[in-house]
Structures are given as structure tokens and as C-alpha cells.
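Q: Predict the bound structure with fe (ii) ion.
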Amino acid sequence: MPAQVPPAQSLPTQAPKPLTPDFYHYRAAPLEKVELDGSWVHLRWPDGTTLRCFDAWLTENSPNRGFDPVSRESVLDPKDVEAGSGLARAWRTQEGLLELEWTDGQREQLHPGWLRHVADNQHRPDSFLPAEVGWDSGTLPEPPTTDGSRVLENDEILLGWLQDLVRFGLARLRGVPAHHDFLEQLISKVGPIRATNFGSMFTVEAKVDRDSTAYTGLNLGQHTDLPTRETPPGFQFLHCLENTVTGGWSRMTDGATLVAELQRNHPQDYEALTTLRWVFFNRSPTCDHRWSGPLIDHGGPDQPLTIRAFYPVRAFPDMKPKDVPRAYAAMAVLSKLAHSDRFQIRFAFTPGDIVGFDNRRVLHGRDAFQPSDGSRALRGTYMDHDDLYSTLRVLTRKAESGPLED
Ligand SMILES: [Fe+2]
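A: Predicted complex:
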């Protein structure tokens, strides 16, 4: 049915824009056309963009009727949404807003800029995050690097570094103070630290009494940390406090690129790596974390990739005995690729460097070093994907908001 414009002016000329069910500012984005068709409202903007809205969803997102104006969260239980969603009319106001009238006579207006962001798919979890860019040693010989000397005071610098981190799964800050508490201060600004059985902060240095091979001068093969968990930490950060040893270079390999290579050129190994499970188990007198999963864990549809590759805690095949030989063979193929010059990059840590990497996507390792040569100390911590992505969306939207209308 065509838009029905009620005779009375629905808004005074200077009326504030309707509240949105979030805390962002939206451009005005006036609508060109509104049509109510049964339970659906069809919206169209002047550039031809359209959005089809179900009445119950509009009800949930209507100020006063559907969400709490303070918390901006929905207040309607599903049983109440259904009963209260009958729309009698829907129309475009003179200012291009969507106005609705329910069968009980209540009227509400919805912000067309907010509706437009849904039409533009900006409500999706991947919106306001950079798209993943796969890399190998030819396309990314060094970690993307940002001058971090003002990162605590300048959100633009922080934003650029976090964007690189999400885009490449690897990003470095250089020139930050090489003092013990700096990493905790910086990462706490991004979001809550993900504590593990190694504590909330840890220092990677050679130790006599150690609970991980990381605390030696041994070579560490390409791996991801904590595959013993249902959800391994999303990001890891290492801050170099001192480094006077020979060797001990860091190595990184993009797991997303390895997955594509395996799919393309090693389909049988790829099948084994994505379906045959292993029990990962941390050996410790005080904790007992376990998880079973394949080395290349795609989770479910739209789930992030998790590479579970850490031989120090890979404990038991969780598969039929007949599959064990091909599981070992496929792991060897993955490991050879991960250590090859084509896919792996190597770089030295300098005091004042912070290297962040996606612990579920990028494999990391370390060349051997001789602890008696000097000192090597890296302060480290973890953060979940969720918390970093949240800060990145907020910073990105703040940077993009500019002089917007309310
Ligand atoms: Fe590690």
C-alpha cells in the first residue's frame, strides 16, 4: 500500500532526531519512499538503496516502545513483541524520517540514518574492521610498523596499529619505552587482558624453574599458543625490554595463507588437518587444561579460523588408529610450509618494540639463543578478539563521525 501521510504535522520543525538503539551519531539520510505491505515496511532512499523491515523488528527498535532510552537495549520479551507489533500505518515525514503508527494508536519515529546503516550492512560483526589481507615473505617481509612513541596519548596512532593488526594479523610498534609496566598500561587501554595459567602478564626469559619451553633458549617451532583451550586467546603482545643475546630472532607465518596453499596444492593433507582431532593438554602440577580439535579448526560457518599447532602440548590422537599415520604426515606438511622461506618471515626484537599478532591465525616461533650470551626479556600478554574488535569499532566510528548531525 502506498505511504499514508497523516494530515497533522508529525514533528515540530526543530524537533530532535529520534533516539537510536545505540550510542552512535548518524547522518540524516532522509528517506524517499515508505510503503507498508502487510507485516513489512519497505524503505527506499533517493540513491535507490532499499531495506525491507519486519514489523516486530521495527517495534523492538522503536524509542519508547521497544528499547530503553537510557541503556538503549531492547526491553520487549518475544511474547510481547508479537502481540504489540501490529502496524496500522507507516509513512515518510517531511524531513524524511520513518514514522509508524501501531494499531493501539501509538506513534514513533525511527532515525533514517540508523536504518540506512542497516541497509548498508554496517550492522554486521565484520563492519568497521579492516578486511583480512593474507601475506607471505614476498608480500610482507617485515611486520607492518608504526612509530609508537606517542601511542598512549594519540588515538589515531593506536587506531592505525590496531587496524594493521587485524588486517595482517601482525603489527609492530617501535620506539615505545622499554620499561616493565608499559605493555600492561597500553593493552589495558585497548581492553581487558585475557589472563591464563601463565598469569595476566608474563615475561619470556630463560628460567631454570620453568613451566613452558618458551622459558629456555631453545628453538621454538612455528606454533600458536594455548590450543589447550576451547577458545585460545585471540591476540598476543610481546614487548621487548632487553635483548643482548645473539640469535633468538622471532619468526612469523600467516596461517590464513597456509590454509589457502593447503587447500589449493595439498587437498588430502588439508582434509586431514581440518577433520582429524588431537587432544591438547598442558602439563603442569597445578592446572589441567584440555581441548580436542583439528590443527586447522574452522569452527562453524562464519567462525574465525583457529590454528591449533603447538607440539609441546599436543598430547593424544583423538581419531581412529587407521587415521594416525596420515594425521602425522599432514602435520609434517603443515610444519614444513610454516617454516619455509616462502611463508615465514624473521626479524629481531629491539628494546622498545611491541609486536602484536593474531594468535589464532599467525604462527610464531623463535630461533635458538644462548642465555649465557646476555639478556633477552619479552613482556607478554593476551587479549580476546572480542575486546580488541570492540575498541577498534569504537575508535573507527569516532574517527569517521566528523561533523555529523544528531
Ligand atoms: Fe608461543
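A: The longest strand covers residues 235-243.
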